[in-house]
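fyi for ur records
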Amino acid sequence: MGESNQYPEHIPVLRDAFVEAIVTDPDGTYVDCTFGRGGHSRELLARLSEKGRLLAFDRDPEAVAEGERLARQDARFTIVHADFARLGEILDERGWSQVNGIGFDLGVSSPQVDNAERGFSFQKSGPLDMR
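which gave:
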């Protein structure tokens, strides 16, 4: 039995439109530059064939941990704990000379805003993260 997601399901706004715009070839290679809790990545994987592959980036250690769980469940998926500014460098390291689509969902997500300790909440008292 697969591992469960420790976070409530987060369905990104415009998930279907995001994925429809990116996936042009089910056998292709794709990049999710802002993994978050994996809403876009899971839908991308659902639309890829067994030959398709997906690389995802995130800077948030909690998001990367969630991505590692997904990677253990699906060999087509790889998570990288890095800023997407390193996209070119990491693609070169992997020998990926071209990709079929790249997606970005910029901004904060519910898990970040809902937890005051993350430094993003405007609803609860907590430390302020001004990065």
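Residues 1-5 have pLDDT under 50 and may be disordered. thats all i got for now
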